[in-house]
Amino acid sequence: xxxxxxxxxxxxxxxxxxxxxxxxxxxxxxxxxxxxxxxxxxxxxxxxxxxxxxxxxxxxxxxxxxxxxxxxxxxxxxxxxxxxxxxxxxxxxxxxxxxxxxxx
Length: 104
Ligand SMILES: [Zn+2]
Description:
Elements (H helix, E strand, L loop, with lengths): L3 H30 L6 H34 L14 H6 L11
Helix pairs in contact: 1-2
C-alpha cells in the first residue's frame, strides 16, 4: 500500500495543474470568438482539438477526485467491483485505478 498522505498531495498537485490547463483552454476558446472570420476554418479545427483535450482533462479530473474521495473514505486500493486489494504494482502504474487487474 502506497503512502496515502504523499499520494493525496500528489493528486491535489495534479488536480491544480489540470484545472489551470482547463482554464487556459477556456481562455483560448474565448479569444477565438473574437478572431477574424478569414481564420474560421483553421479555428474550427483548433476548437475540435481543444474540445478533445478538454474531455481528456475532464476525465482525468474526475478520476483524481474519485481517488481522493476513496482515500478519504479509506477505500483506496480496494477494487470497486470485487472488493479485492488492488496490487501495489498496479497502483504504482495507475494511481487512480479503482478496479483490480482482473476486473479492469
Ligand atoms: Zn476486482
